[in-house]
Amino acid sequence: MSKLKNPPVPFLSLSAQFKKLQQEWLHSIATVGANGSFILGPNVAAFEAEFAAYIGTKAAVALANGTDALILSLRALGIGAGDEVITTPFTFFASAEAINHVGARPVFVDIDERSFNIDPEQVEPAITNRTKAILPVHIFGCPTNMNAIKKLAQSSNLKIVEDCAQACGAKVDDARVGAWGTIGTFSFYPTKVLGCYGDGGMVTTDDLELVARLNKLRNHSAVQPFIHDAIGYNSRLDEIQAALLRIKLRDIAEVIARRRHLAALYEECFADTCVAVPSESAGVTHVFNLYTVRVPRRYRVQQRLQEARIGFSICYPQPLHLQPVYQYLGYRCGDLPRSELAAEQCISLPIYPDMLAEQVEIVCKVVKSAL
Ligand SMILES: Cc1ncc(COP(=O)(O)O)c(C=O)c1O
Asked: Does residue 1 belong to any structural domain of this protein?
């Protein structure tokens, strides 16, 4: 066992946040119950309007989760069999899984080593006459270079589906992610910057035709009660989660400020060490859904953290192009070296709004002791 005698630090704790808003949420659940409108009711409609206003799009459509947000977006854009979608291999599986769900083929290109996001310079050579869309993922809460992605999409007539699951509230210049692409997709999984107490998702867009398609798709493609003109989904955010998300959206600026403050503390503590901390390029606002650093000899850092009972996560241990499920695509080890190196070196350290400055110090002390 380690000689370090620090108190344990969880990777994530949401209990303090729950205590703060529990009364208000319980009251809102009682109101939902009393109204008796449980599916696609007034809280969902109000939350869609509030969320669209926050992101800066004309509309938002609430769905059951962030994976469905990706799948239904691709479906609404008419992407399917025979089409290619260019994306990053350094992301959670759902980003690419959604491409397969609509019958299209994911095309992986390498990442920028500082932001861990898709490198726009790698996108252009991957465009073929089958390419229909670029699917950038704002990984860990760090926005992709959307100015460059937008230019590429415009010049090649491609759609952009922004996967904003980890980056609610993040900005490029003055515009939030989710307002840059043809469509933006969000997850309200509990660990997200804006998380609910279950599953939830959202799509944002300025295209009202897409909104109409998404509204239909999420409700079994019903054109009127019990009449269906296509195969759809049951993918609706429920009223109780919408009521909670409306409460939490009010405080999102404070939550992001707190995450950014903790990230700044980490950065200060890791100054003059070989820990490569997350970078924020000019004009970009990172929301630090995850605090992911690169370290040499990661196994030693993992071991020390385990001994000191400090939570961590390896996001992500294997890039998607090398996953067993994607063997059929024919990628080999060494094809996307920056993603492969990131998978070997990255470790995500604890960060959540109620984490204390002293806890950041403890985590840094333990990490440094392993280097
Ligand atoms: C980058 C990314 N995309 C998509 C998703 C899928 O979201 P959900 O879990 O709400 O389906 C996640 C969830 O972790 C994610 O991190």
From this structure: no
Cβ of 237 less than 6 Å from ligand 1? no
CA of 227 to the centre of ligand 1 (A): 32
Last residue of one domain, picked from the residues 250, 280, 304: 250
> Residue 120, Cβ neighbours under 10 Å: how many?
20
Residue located via tokens 């959307």: 146
Q: Are residues 75 and 181 in the same domain?
A: yes
Residue from 189, 218, 237, 238 to probe ligand 1 pocket by mutation (most atoms less than 8 Å from CB): 189
Structural domain containing residue 335: 251-369
| Number of separate domains in the chain | 2
Q: Is the CB of 144 under 6 A from ligand 1?
A: no
Please state, in angstroms and rounded to a whole number, the distance separating the CA atoms of residues 114 and 220.
42
Statement to judge: residues 153 and 262 lie in one domain: no
Nearest-CA residue for atom 12 of ligand 1: 165
pLDDT tens for 314-328 read: 999 999 999 999 999
pLDDT in tens, 140-189: 999 999 999 999 999 999 999 999 999 999 999 999 999 999 999 999 99
What's the average model confidence in pLDDT over 4-14? 87
pTM: 0.97
Q: Note the pLDDT tens digit of each residue in 115-137.
A: 999 999 999 999 999 999 999 99
In order, the DSSP letters of 172-202 are: ETTEETTSSSSEEEEE--TTSSS--SS--EE
CB of 316 sitting under 6 A from ligand 1: no
Q: Are residues 186 and 266 in the same domain?
A: no
Q: Which amino acid is at 130?
A: R
Coil, strand or helix at 14: coil
Q: 273 and 187, same structural domain?
A: no
The finding on whether 116 has its CB within 6 A of some atom of ligand 1 is no
CA 27–ligand 1 middle distance (angstroms): 29
CA 142 to centroid of ligand 1, rounded, Å: 15
